Amino acid sequence: MIHLKNVSKHYHPDVAALRNVNLHIRPGEFVSIVGQSGTGKTTLAKLLFAEETPTRGQVLIGGWDISNIQPRDVPFLRRQIGVVFQDFKLLPRKTVFENVAFALEVAGVAGRRIREVVPQVLEIVNLRDRAHRFPKQLSGGEQQRVAIARALVHRPKILVADEPTGNLDALNTHEIIELLKKINEFGTTVVLVTHNRDVVNRLCKRVIAIDHGEVVSDVEEGKYRI
Amino acid sequence: MVSFIRAIRFALQNIWRNFWLSVITVTMLVLTLLSVNLLLVMDFVTSRATQYVEDRIEVSVYFKAGTPQEKAMNALAYLRNLSQVRDVQSVTADEALIRFKDRHAGEEAILRSVTEVGRNPFGPALIIRAKSAADFPFILEALDSPQFSQDIREKDFSNYEQIIRRIQQTTDSIRLFGFGLCLIFLTIATLIIFNTVRIGIFIHREEIGIMKLVGATDGFVRAPFLIEVILYSILATVIVSAIVLPSIAALDPKLNLFFSGYSMGIVPYFQKNGWMIFGSELAGLTVINLFSTYVAMRRHLRV
Predict the structure, then answer these.
(1) Which of B6, B26, B76, B168 has its CA 20 to 30 A from that of B216?
(2) B212 at interface of A, judged by CB pairs closer than 8 A
(3) Among candidate residues B157, B175, B210, the one where a domain is terminated
(4) Is A106 within 8 Å of B218 when comparing Cβ atoms?
(5) Are strands A56-61 and A2-12 parallel, antiparallel or unpaired?
(6) How far apart are CA A217 and CA A211, in angstroms?
(7) Which of B133, B157, B181 delimits the end of a domain?
(8) Is B213 close to A83, i.e. CB distance below 8 A?
(9) Is the pLDDT score of B260 beyond 80?
């Protein structure tokens, strides 16, 4: 599903965010990418949804080489990859329903289809009764669930979650991780970027550790260890 | 189609959310178009005023007393063949005498002096109208040919050319001033459009970022900004036409009165060409605004 071959990313000639990274993530896997701040985790995540392009090497998503993706192709890639961030990135003036529908609207999906799909996705994240609330009327965990619903609304094959629990308390963190596990059980490949030791240890899924831009360990059913 | 309708909706949202900025932008566009229309009306009125004056210019050519009417008629035929001549009328010596007496009726001394001469002291005359004031020198020169010059006593050409030149000089100055005013307003309007789009991008940067994140195409991100300035242009043109049309309707009778009942025809002119005038203004304004938006998006919108 996801292949990184000898990928390096340099923001400046002397500053390497990633060095010669090789990875293969299979369809339906739940992978945690761990490491301390500034080690290149987020850069790696950004490469997956073409927010960044590698300086060297190849990034393949479902066989599609996106290493030098054309700007006009980026929207079509992003409709196949759901992305969730630590700061939720919700539109404050739109309701929960409108925030989720927004992802379909910009893709040109018909209104009738939007009215069908959005309630289904809100049901998955257990927010159907909050559909007409605004983000500021929700808790942090609920806001993150809206962001996940928006990421899922295109029915992506891959979900990239960059520190999704970074702003949440323990209870909400648990809820979000359970939700990500549920999404993974439906067959979506989940790439979780985190530095939360408890989350990773409780998941008992594949753990890839990055340090100074290099993959230092890659363990099936691993623990947080750097 | 669905995306186009959504882009229009987003554009309307942009306009509504930045209401006062939209008001300022449209106001500047209205001022720009008003100055263009003012220039247009000025141009029309001055060309009609020049025409009005030119229509009234005539040269009177007086033949010497005793010149046979036939010679005057030869000159008339010659003049009518000139392309510069619009109309020539002949006045016989007898008619000239009657007119003179009519003009000086009640002035005993003058009338007595004419009687004392014992014969008609007037010769035939020609009243010439040219197609343009600029044609008179040519016509007068043509009458200087030996064929006619020996019989001509006087050519009475009031200095209309100078009057027209003065009108044209004033018109040119006003036109230059109006053109400068248009340029200033256009520059300000272009800068304001640029700034409006820039602020729009800044205000919506979060939304734009999320649009890109969830798979919006470049075109979909840019379209609302382009539609927004097209809507501004349409609105400004509608407002300007709503100001200009009643204004010229109110101005027309006053102008006609000023020119002694001579119809300036400004209302019929706008009735006939209104769609073309406002359509061209809309097209021009839209092109300039789209260009300004394109530059603003290139500089500030990274998609």
Answers:
(1) B26
(2) yes
(3) B157
(4) no
(5) antiparallel
(6) 9
(7) B157
(8) yes
(9) no
Instruction: Work out the mean pLDDT of chain B and round it to a whole number.
Output: 84
Is residue B234 domain-shared with residue B248, that is, in the same domain?
A: yes
Q: Is A102 on the interface with B (CB under 8 A)?
A: yes
Q: How confident is the model over A139-163, as pLDDT tens digits?
A: 999 999 999 999 999 889 999 999 9
Structure-derived torsion over alpha carbons of residues A154, A160, A166, A168, reported in degrees to the nearest 10:
30
**Residue tagged 């840019």 (tokens):** B222
- Interface mutation target, options B5, B205, B212, B213, chain A, most CBs of A under 10 Å: B213
- Residues B228, B224: Cα–Cα separation, whole Å: 6
How many angstroms away from the CA of A51 is the closest CA of chain B?
A: 9
| pLDDT score recorded for residue B160 | 64
Q: What is the mean pLDDT of residues A209-215?
A: 90
* Whether residues B133 and B281 fall in one domain: no
Residues B150 and B169 in one domain: no
**How close is the nearest chain B Cα to the Cα of A52, in Å?**
12
Look at residue A226 in the predicted model and tell me its pLDDT. 61
Do both B70 and B171 map to the same domain? Answer: no
A115-137 core/surface letters (b: 16 or more CB in 10 A; e: else)? eebbeebbebbebbebbeebbee
CB pairs under 8 A between A and B: 53
Determine, for residues A106 and B303 on separate chains, whether the beta-carbon distance falls below 8 Å: no
Please report which residue ranges of B56-125 form alpha helices under DSSP H: 69-80, 93-103, 108-117
Q: Is B214 within 8 Å of A78 when comparing Cβ atoms?
A: yes
Task: Quote ipTM for the complex.
Answer: 0.80
